Amino acid sequence: MDQLISPNTLKILSPLLIGTTYISAFKNHKQTCDRYMLNYFLYLITTIVLYLTFGELSDEYGFNDNKMALILSFIGSIGIIFAFTVTKNVWVRHLLFIALIFLISIGSKKFYEKYDKEEITSVIKKLLLILVVCAGIAVKFPDLIKPGLVNAGMISLIIIIILSLVDHFVFKGKYNKIISTIIVFIFTMFIIYDTNRVIGYSKKCKSDKNGDKYLNHVIDMFLNIINVFNNLLNIE
Asked: Tens digits of per-residue pLDDT, 5-22?
């Protein structure tokens, strides 16, 4: 993905977005609910730009050529996710969040190298269309989005992961594109659900005593987007 944005531009955008997000989402060094949806999108855009920037840095320092680094990035991601769930301090959670994005970026970079700029651009257009449609559904039909949707999605995801392992080891990837199509559909459902959840939370944020008002929602949506994007590329 970083082929579409120059490395120097990414290195300038990252600190600018981090600074802008902090100024907008914090008041007196504490997170604020003011402009909640704007701040949420700032967090999300900043996360995506950091993801691309870390991918570029991993190239510069050769992380992608080191198999041990890739293994450690996978193990480290699991450890960070666990630490993230048990840590309440807002600043520590932000540091863990940045470290998680860095490790995910290292683990993903090799995957993108086999695609050219035209393929990536085509998939980005499809992804944007999916995001717009999902946001429209979440806004227009909130009563249709029930907690059971995410439960069904999680069960479906577990089943499809098992099937993908069977396909990889038994059928040598014969049904790879079909499986990727199903995964895109599942994570599209997650995007609709999480968008609805964010909209709902934005209305009750001020009554929420939780110190961290953004990162859980941002991580969920970021992972949804990355999974849809990667599987659209695989289909392409």
From this structure: 787 888 899 999 999 999
Q: How far apart are CA 202 and CA 206, in angstroms?
A: 8
Tell me the C-alpha distance between 112 and 20, whole Å: 29
Amino acid 6 reads S
Percent over 70 (pLDDT), the chain: 91
Closest residue by Cα to residue 223 from 178, 181, 193, 203: 193
Helix (H) or strand (E) holding 30: strand 30-31
What would the pLDDT profile of 70-88 be if each residue is shown by its tens digit?
677 778 888 998 998 898 8
CA 33 to CA 9: how far, in whole Å?
30
Residue 50 CB-density burial (10 A; 0-12 exposed, 13-18 middle, 19+ buried): buried
**What does pTM read for this prediction?**
0.90
Q: Which of 86, 81, 138, 123 is nearest to 104 (CA)?
A: 81
3-6, long-range: CB < 8 A, 24+ apart = 3/116, 3/117, 3/120, 4/117, 4/120, 4/121, 4/124, 5/52
Q: What is the pLDDT of residue 2?
A: 47
Distance between CA atoms of residues 217 and 227, nearest Å: 16
